[in-house]
């Protein structure tokens, strides 16, 4: 069985084709600048060199046509016909409370996702564009929706409700949803395999740390709490997002700077985080370099970030009544030994002690970086959301 995995953004489309026999990646790529001048597709066969296809991509339908042509190309393609695509797995960011797991995409599901679009106006519409395009191009191929929010639907009301008038939840479904669920689920499963223990017996904190960052408390295989909330703005300090702040700051800035709510929303989402504090960049690599060169604001930005992650680890350990593993994943979590070291340096009281010899210089490699005597294992686990989407798609189909 071969599954095409699609992740559609507003002007981009990432894809992978995976042979589920052996879970072999056949090819991957990305279509960029969809609907803009200078659009192109980067196509990379697993056993070949990267191809750049420069062509006009008016919409997501054009992009899907071009990527299918690339998959079928006699020189750098990996399929002999479209019939080899047995299913399509779509990453969908927001499913609200409607779905607690992946589902076969029907018109009823599409209608439900349309209803959720006001909860994720930047993400759901392009996700739906990809679904509509596939329905038109390959109408007989089964499609599955895999939702970022679904894994967190096991949270109890005490974790997902905000202390606002309850009727606002009833009317508008204002609550914590959580995101990056596909990644949190994947690395939790893989960590249990690495530790040789059933996931249903473990208490794990997963740290998905990248430009967008979130954490989850996973108790016995279920998400019971997570840092992102009604939107991906809540929780950790991120590349450009502020994370947790006093909500009264919003009205204060509006009044002092004569700004609209849209203006302040733009500041909190696109001009804050480590970019806003450091003034250097939203890329943690640039900030780490600046900090090493003596930039004080860069140092403070990193310290704020590290402290916030450490605080949530402690909070989730208390919430679960113990901890078996701390898992680092995504761009920063997988590749920054400095971040892992700084986040864990004060966690020995929990039984989590990092081993600098195991941690230093390790990037993107599935490994345990805690000391041999550490009762709480510190794990580096590369995420693979596309493979998780393919697995979910295969299971549904």
Fraction in beta strands: 15-25%
Rg:
21 Å
**Extended strand count:** 14
Q: What is the approximate shape?
A: globular
Sheet having the most strands: 8 strands, mixed
Fill in the CATH topology of the largest domain. Answer: Nucleotidyltransferase, domain 5
What's the number of helices? 15
Give the distance, in angstroms, between the N- and C-terminal Cα atoms.
10 Å
Mean pLDDT, to the nearest integer, reads: 93
Supply the CATH architecture of the largest domain. 2-Layer Sandwich
The level of helicity is 25-40%
Task: Give helix and strand order, one letter per element, not per position.
Answer: EEEEEHEEHHEHHHEEEHHHHHEHHHEEH
CATH superfamily label of the largest domain: ATPase, nucleotide binding domain
- Assign the CATH class of the largest domain: Alpha Beta
Q: Strand order of the main beta sheet, please?
A: 5-4-3-2-1-6-8-7
How many domains? 2
Determine the structural class based on helices, strands and strand pairing: alpha/beta
Parts with pLDDT < 50 across at least 5 consecutive residues: none
Binding site for Mg(2+): 7, 385
Site (Transition state stabilizer): 180, 241
Keywords: ATP-binding, Cytoplasm, Kinase, Magnesium, Metal-binding, Nucleotide-binding, Transferase
Organism: Tindallia californiensis
């Amino acid at each position: 069985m071969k599954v095409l995995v699609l992740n559609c953004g507003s002007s981009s489309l990432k894809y992978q084709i995976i042979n589920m026999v052996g879970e072999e990646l056949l090819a991957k790529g990305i279509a960029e600048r969809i609907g803009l001048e200078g659009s192109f597709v980067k196509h990379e066969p697993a056993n070949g060199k990267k191809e750049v296809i420069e062509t006009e991509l008016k919409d997501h339908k054009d992009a899907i046509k071009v990527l299918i042509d690339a998959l079928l190309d006699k020189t750098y393609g990996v399929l002999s016909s479209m019939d080899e695509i047995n299913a399509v797995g779509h990453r969908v960011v927001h499913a609200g409370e409607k779905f607690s797991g992946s589902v076969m995409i029907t018109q009823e599901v599409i209608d439900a996702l349309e209803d959720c679009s006001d909860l994720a106006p930047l993400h759901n519409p392009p996700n739906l564009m990809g679904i509509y395009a596939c329905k038109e191009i390959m109408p007989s191929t089964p499609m599955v929706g895999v939702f970022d929010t679904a894994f967190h639907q096991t949270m109890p009301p005490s974790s997902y409700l905000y202390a606002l008038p309850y009727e606002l939840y009833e009317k508008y479904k204002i609550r914590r949803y959580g995101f990056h669920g596909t990644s949190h689920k994947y690395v939790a499963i893989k960590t249990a395999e690495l530790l040789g223990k059933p996931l249903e017996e473990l208490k794990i904190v997963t740290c998905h740390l990248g430009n967008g960052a979130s954490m989850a408390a996973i108790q016995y295989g279920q998400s019971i709490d997570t840092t992102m909330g009604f939107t991906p703005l809540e929780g950790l300090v991120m590349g450009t997002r502020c994370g947790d702040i006093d909500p009264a700051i919003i009205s204060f800035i509006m009044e002092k700077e004569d700004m609209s709510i849209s203006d302040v929303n733009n500041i909190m989402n696109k001009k804050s985080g480590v970019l806003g504090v450091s003034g250097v960049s939203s890329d943690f690599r640039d900030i780490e370099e600046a900090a090493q060169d003596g930039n004080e604001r860069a140092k403070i930005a990193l310290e704020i970030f590290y402290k916030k992650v450490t605080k949530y680890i402690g909070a989730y350990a208390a919430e679960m009544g113990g901890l078996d593993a701390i898992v680092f994943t995504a761009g920063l979590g997988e590749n920054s030994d400095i971040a892992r070291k700084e986040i864990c340096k004060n966690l020995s009281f929990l039984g989590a002690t990092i081993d600098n010899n195991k941690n230093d210089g390790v990037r993107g490699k599935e490994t345990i970086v805690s000391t041999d005597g550490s009762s709480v294992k510190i794990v580096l686990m590369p995420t693979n959301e596309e493979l998780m989407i393919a697995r979910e798609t295969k299971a549904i189909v």
